[in-house]
Amino acid sequence: MSPNIAYTWRLFTTLTWTNFKMRYYGSILGYIWSLLKPLALFGVLYLVYTVFFNQQTPHYKPFLLLGIILWDYFSQATNAGMNGFIGNYQMIRKVYLPRYVLVAAAVSSAFIGLLFNLVVFFIFALIDGVPMEWRMLWFVPLLLAFYLLTLGIGFILSIIVVKVRDMLSLWEVFIQLGFWLTPIIYPASNIPEKWRPLFFLNPVCGLITYSRHFLIGIGESTLIGYAYVLLVSAVLFILGLFIFKWKEGAMVEDL
Amino acid sequence: MPPAITVRNLSKTFRLPAERRGTLRERLMKLHVRNERKARKTLDNINFEIQQGEFFGIIGRNGSGKSTLLKILAGIYRPDKGSEVTIHGRIAPMLELGVGFNPELTGRENVFLNATILGLNRRQITERYETIVDFAQLQDFMELQVKHYSSGMSVRLAFAVAMQVDAPIMLLDEVLAVGDFVFAEKCFALFERYKTEGKTIILVTHDPSAMERFADRAMLIHKSQIKSVGKPQEVLETYHQLG
Predict the structure, then answer these.
(1) Residue B220: strand, helix, or coil
(2) ipTM reported for the complex, 2 dp
(3) Phi/psi of residue B123, each to 5°?
(4) Pairing state between β B55-60 and B217-222
């Protein structure tokens, strides 16, 4: 049974769109609600860090907002991907379809949410006086890398969680900790020099730091760091796809 | 013409652990105890052929292995090594109505979703949308969320979409024949149509009358093996004799 490319693509787009609609369906505020969460977090953190901790970073508003939006996407996308397999148990047992599409559609619907959030961010940035520069275009490959990274992690998690249900909670804890261990609230320059390489091993660290550099102009980026982020994302994507394809058959029987 | 479906040496063994250790706690606590994997042979050396254009019935008790056989033909499960399953032509497995149906979506949205999952493209769905709605008699309800539908409405809608699936080989689970008497008649009318169109049909059913009315040949599966293949009457006899 090998369904053709056209079918797979149609299925992918339909499921992505359905997932996206389902996120905000029925709630009156709809999409606004999903925006409210990062905005509320932003509001509180901004208050605390500027008033209480006296954060000095210029353009701190868009700086903080961008970090939160990007991390929020990371959390949502990986969680959605992780549930892509076990959550669609009914469908998988009754019809054959390319299962990676289920995980990919879940991650992609979160990505659409990110794109909307980025538009809001741009409005924020403009209001805060951030100038438009050509340098911003460097962000686009980063964005695509982020998409691939979350896809890869989603694939891997979706397989693990079939056998080890704890993964759901473990990942939640991981995301919580990751929020603090990634320079979201603070700039990377706050990290002591000798620890910085360690922090940057985490691709999301580079992603967020460099995104801020390209879009707002804070901080700096190195070509090596940039290449590292793109490379790790691509590798995790390919790895995730392989692991998924390798194990999906066995996992169906374990569902 | 090559047979539509050829199955040789088909076996399916499920290796299920004796107890469920789905969480880390369960695994760690029982680390010292080996979780015996019980091998259950759900299908044991199945061999059969279905010719193009045949209406082939499959009957068997619950737990005999027929669902597993269907799932293997549908590509959902993988058979054991050494099994040969050859399918000549496009196959449309219909193991359940309304696959993918989401109660939060409207009737219209579910039609598009379900039809896409079943393989239709956007143009086809748009062209056939009116036919589907008319057949299901839900003209006034398509913008209503499916969670507000009665079970009869949902089944009618799902069936209306399923009818639009068009493939030379159709694999139908008995689930298609659930529903009231009127619904059963609609199913039978559909079977008649498929027969005149020369489709190859595999129907799994508990209903002897459907078997006798439509099937050219039939097969009885009992405790993971084929007990009888041939004329529907004979196969049904054997089925009853099993007690």
Answers:
(1) strand
(2) 0.83
(3) -65, -45
(4) parallel
Please count the other Cβ atoms lying within 10 Å of the Cβ belonging to residue A240.
25
Integer Cα distance of B206 and B115 in angstroms: 27
> What sign does the dihedral B63-B66-B67-B68 (CA atoms) show?
positive
Contact A206/A200 with Cβ under 8 angstroms? yes
Count A/B contacts: CB-CB distance under 8 Å.
67
CB contact under 8 A, A22 and B104: yes
Find residues 15-54 of chain B whose CB sits inside 8 Å of chain A. 22-25, 27
Edge-to-edge strands, sheet with B200-204: B91-94, B169-172, B200-204, B55-60, B217-222, B225-230
Cα nearest neighbour of A15 on chain B: B113
Interface contact flag, B23 A7, Cβ < 8 Å? no
**What totals of helices (H) and strands (E) does chain B contain, helices first?**
8, 9
Of A14, A92, A163, nearest to B116 by CB-CB distance is A14
What mean pLDDT is predicted for residues A200-222? 91
**Local confidence pLDDT in tens for the 243 residues of chain B:** 889 999 999 999 887 766 666 777 777 777 777 776 778 888 999 999 999 999 999 998 888 888 899 999 998 999 998 899 999 988 888 888 888 898 888 999 999 999 999 989 999 999 999 999 998 889 999 999 999 999 888 988 998 998 898 889 999 887 655 667 788 788 888 888 988 999 999 999 877 888 888 999 999 999 889 989 999 999 999 988 886
- Cβ count near A169 (within 10 Å): 11
Q: pTM for the complete prediction?
A: 0.88
Residue A248, pLDDT above cutoff 50: yes
Asked if B202 and B173 touch (Cβ cutoff 8 Å), the reply is no
Q: What is the DSSP string of B101-163?
A: --TTSBHHHHHHHHHHHHT--HHHHHHHHHHHHHHHT-TTTTTSBGGGS-HHHHHHHHHHHHT
SS3 label, residue B61: coil
Tokens of A68: 């939160």
Q: Which residue has the tokens 């700086």?
A: A63
Q: List for chain B the helix, strand, coil content (%; round to 5).
A: 40, 25, 35
Is A166 close to B24, i.e. CB distance below 8 A? yes
The CA–CA distances, whole Å, from A50 to A120, A122, A187 equal 22, 21, 14
> Please, is B120 exposed, middle or buried when counting C-beta atoms within 10 Å of its C-beta (0-12, 13-18, 19+)?
buried
